[in-house]
Automatic annotation (TrEMBL):
Signal peptide start and end residues: 1-20
One Pfam family recorded for the sequence: NMT1
GO terms of molecular function: metal ion binding; transferase activity
Biological process (GO), any one: thiamine biosynthetic process
Protein name: Thiamine pyrimidine synthase
Catalytic reaction(s) noted: N(6)-(pyridoxal phosphate)-L-lysyl-[4-amino-5-hydroxymethyl-2-methylpyrimidine phosphate synthase] + L-histidyl-[4-amino-5-hydroxymethyl-2-methylpyrimidine phosphate synthase] + 2 Fe(3+) + 4 H2O = L-lysyl-[4-amino-5-hydroxymethyl-2-methylpyrimidine phosphate synthase] + (2S)-2-amino-5-hydroxy-4-oxopentanoyl-[4-amino-5-hydroxymethyl-2-methylpyrimidine phosphate synthase] + 4-amino-2-methyl-5-(phosphooxymethyl)pyrimidine + 3-oxopropanoate + 2 Fe(2+) + 2 H(+)
Species whose genome carries this gene: Pelagovum pacificum
Domain SsuA/THI5-like as annotated: residue spans: 34-253
Amino acid sequence: MKTLVTAAVAALGLAAPAWAQDEVTLQLKWVTQAQFAGYYVAQDQGFYEEEGLDVTILPGGPDIAPEQVIAGDGADVITTWMAAALAARERGLGLVNIAQPFKTGGLQLTCLKSSGIETEEDFPGKTLGVWFYGNEYPFYAWMAQLGIATDGADEDGVDVLRQAFNVNPLLEGQADCISTMTYNEYGQVLDAGISEDELVNFNYLEMGNGMLEDGLYVLEEDLEDPEFADKMVRFVRASMKGWKWAEENPEEAAQIVVDNDQTGAQTLEHQIYMMGEVAKLTEGSEGALDPADYEQTVATLLSAVSEDNPAITEEPEGAYTTDITDEALGGDM
């Protein structure tokens, strides 16, 4: 894999003819929001055009699985979490990580102190809200590590609430804890009037269950095409330029996101908050995947293969390549 991509990229060179506007379709993991600011900035500021690319950004949503979209030829490249990508790969979809804009992750479990939860030992007997559609793998690996059953069959286990992508279960007393992202739902909980002093957060990374979140993935078979590999080099270079611009200009980036939100649901105030939190996750990355982070994700998943919902059951092979970022980011960005 690595040799093929390197040869393909080297054969075509880095520069694209000025008239070449190669089309690229990017499928996002979720709706238009600052979680994806770098891509919208790259489009708005002309970074994609400078690379000879005509990029279409497809927002995600609750009924859209990026893995299914790319499997159906609906996108050239997707953003998704590594656990979901590795799970899809083990099930036969040849996804390969070509870049990792998010150095760290924002997934956490947010609990009300009034529920009596202070530590992990207090989870048994409680109801925990969990996102699915590929977001559930870190949770099940964590529970398996703790030896806590998730079928709700007895008081030593937990009840799993399939949480919608909002914070209502916590606010309405349906769950003792819910899944939140530091850059989105956690802010919504605070906005609802619950103070930080009333909450306990279990950050997956801080507890040693860290898994890589938003990365860029393509199909292995596509990377064997030299023209496609060259497009991805230019796409990654422009996208990372967009991310660095967004980090340095958070309020302007938030406005660009709002301008691209066709639903009209996003507010500038919340997107500024989100951009500030997202920047904490991207600031340590220049786009290249750190193999140590990859190994941590794999080790976490394999250390506690959940019988209820396993992401992977064996060591993946060929799940990432640094060839694209080596070519894209080798020079000045």
